[in-house]
Amino acid sequence: MPRNRIPEATIRRLPIYLRTLSDLVDDQVEVISSAELAEKTGFSSEQIRKDLAYFGAFGVRGVGYSTSHLSQCLRRILGLHKEVKAVLVGAGHLGTALARYNITRHKDVRITAIFDSDPQKTGQYIEGVPIRPIGEMKETIKREGIKMGIIAVPAPEAQKVALKLKEAGVEAILNFAPTKIVPPEGTFVQNVDLTLELQSLAYYVNRE
Amino acid sequence: MPRNRIPEATIRRLPIYLRTLSDLVDDQVEVISSAELAEKTGFSSEQIRKDLAYFGAFGVRGVGYSTSHLSQCLRRILGLHKEVKAVLVGAGHLGTALARYNITRHKDVRITAIFDSDPQKTGQYIEGVPIRPIGEMKETIKREGIKMGIIAVPAPEAQKVALKLKEAGVEAILNFAPTKIVPPEGTFVQNVDLTLELQSLAYYVNRE
DNA sequence: GACTGTGAATAAGTTCACAGCT
DNA sequence: AGCTGTGAACTTATTCACAGTC
Questions:
Q1: Which chain A residues touch B78 with a CB distance below 8 Å?
Q2: Its pTM surpasses 0.85
């Protein structure tokens, strides 16, 4: 329950805190200070305290944060306390890798439906999840109440797919297509472009 | 030739400008204004002008920017005017998808060597590039003068791999392992964590 | 004494607004 | 007239520094 508007930068750090805390819980560490968390995550301790304080006072002065309590709170803040279903559109190399990676490893956000326009692919399975024709997308998303979409289709189709996802009820989109998607009204879009990452990285080769 | 220190945010936008400009060149468009470029990229025209101006005056007042000249300049600024070689470490699902995606599509930054510790994988090929044992990594990187590394190994190994890459002469690292890599002295590290992206995205489901 | 929570100070990044070329 | 290049204003994000609590 955010008190006011939360900086996007903060939201993007929360999953990192959560991952670190989960590891600590696994290792039976019960309490951690912001300074220790800082060392493990690479962010400053003030930043961590400030980020967490946006959502309330989770720590104990003079002591630190309860790892289990804080990780539970972060899960809830992020909306991961119940499994989040996501739909993947596009089962090419990248889409398939993402699906395998996600389905085998992670539980919080889980790809429960995959769509592709290629009839050769539909009917196949990725880690037990069937690839279905794109025509069934809207209905499936509505029926299953899916709110999150992952786009891994060729660039020229990405914007259209985003719109279809929105129309079906999706509210947050992760786009891997090498093009910038303009967020359809009422959706949040995060673009992740691997080619772009590589290209901007090239700038840092042979400098400073 | 940067006049002073360039904001990281600017560097990350340059490849997007470049991509848009390349498309324009292909479409025989010779000149474009910052306002038109703004519409195509989603950034503001002032921002685009400011970003470009960090590197010099590429535009013509009253006219706009020459698409071919500007794209050439951006290529040079990013260091993409000559092919940039990159090494991929880790040929699991994600690494393999990245390699296929990169090798088949892109020319600017090209994966020319792939390494994996699994003897079952070494000897296989991804799009014509052989997967080699990790023991050969250092020597290959040195011999080929590779400055860029892509890490797609399991989290516990990522930091070690980063250090090895640095020792071999790599200066910029793109890390896909689900852990934050602390940049070894003298390297620039960009962490891209797909799981994290999905988790922070979950926050935007069912809000505002 | 130790560590959190937070206002105040600083830095980074974006938008405004306009002077200056062509 | 049209569009760039840029200082100045503003907004967002980070760091400092310390009062408050256990």
A1: 199-200, 202-203
A2: yes
